[in-house]
């Protein structure tokens, strides 16, 4: 999938579809290894982009409570629900796309030289891909960082160690409560596994912990232009490196035009689109796909196309509904964890027919929904790797296993997409004419997700699911039907977010006077150095006793039998 092919595909026939069939059709071609390899590569590449983009779009579902803030950690920002596609967008999107592509088609006919437009589109797509490739590169660097600096790891015997950046030590914890963990003597490095026992010099060890801190904590970027724009955002160091990588790759691609960089930019563009765009419900998502389904058919056969290839629209459009299916799987996962606590509700009712004001207090038992705290499944690659036993993909740490969930709806859409791609390629060979890929992909994806809901008896839940924020409630009291088990909301209070609170802010004047202001400001602020907490007292030693240890220090000898050594009397218990 080269850049020239991409732009030529846009300008020649303005469509997203698969490559044309050979001139002479033979059923024997379906069994040729080289043909099967090429088609498998196309399907695998498309599914890989959708898989990564869908998992990158995961966020806290409305069925989960905000994650608990650990001591010494910055409170996370309130969840931002994506401004997804609405019903009006589902109607206007294919219409506007048709107008734009028809305009490009007639512009090419008038210019009689598509190379001019190809060069313009090549520059435009290159600039548009910088942010997309920066996002993809930053996430990939985060994955590598999590492998080097995980939060937890497990040894061969299944003992879980938590790496605490604040205390610069490794903790032996019972369960998920890191606050009550006991520092392990001898494990002072920030690395997991065999490297955890390294004892580098003090300065080198301090530098390693600082590097871990800089790569794992968020940085702050501020930009201000007086009278025009002022804002700030938080990102990680890997995001800055990813932006530099994207600038370099885009420059090399523009100068050389190599196909490998074109494929990389196209993949990054699709990846970023899947993380930013989203239908707010399955109904709207189905409408979007159906509208573009009609649009793709009309545009492919209207322009009388000759040869083309798999377009980015054939990846992004079905991928939007597939990402929504994955987030619905996460929503259902936490919905099953919701607990209900009984509460007593009192109400006063006035008694009629009495000369005096008489009220009667009625008390009834209802149930309050308690949501499980959210564990972000993103960024857990390193933790899963270092806590999984060899030959097993399931992590042994409870905190990590909480981030895994079943994905029946997402797997169903993956199967539907793969089936649609196979049918598309088969029809391409049979008819020896370029096929609109959405003609087969849309029924495969939409049919699979709705059929799965029907077979699981969850059509109502899927239809009512939305990502517009209306389901994100807390302290909800419900009435439970004893016969059917269904719940009916009685009292609901929307989640209170910090952004909605009114706070008094006192702004101190600058040293030069109250009228001083920033004409232009661009600043990148590194995270503050983590405060070091003493962990000498109460530490434990795994292995042979340390005779130089302080009095009262607990020691685990061979066989992990707890012994206590007293100084002075020589008596050992």
UniProtKB/TrEMBL annotation:
Skewed-composition ranges (Basic residues): 560-573
Origin superkingdom: Eukaryota
GO biological process: membrane protein proteolysis; signal peptide processing
GO cellular component: cytoplasmic side of endoplasmic reticulum membrane; lumenal side of endoplasmic reticulum membrane
Keyword annotations from UniProtKB, A to Z: Endoplasmic reticulum, Hydrolase, Membrane, Transmembrane, Transmembrane helix
Topological relation to the membrane, as annotated: Multi-pass membrane protein
Any one Pfam family match given in the protein's UniProt record, by short name: Peptidase_A22B
Molecular function terms from GO: aspartic endopeptidase activity, intramembrane cleaving
Family membership: Belongs to the peptidase A22B family.
Protein name: Signal peptide peptidase-domain-containing protein
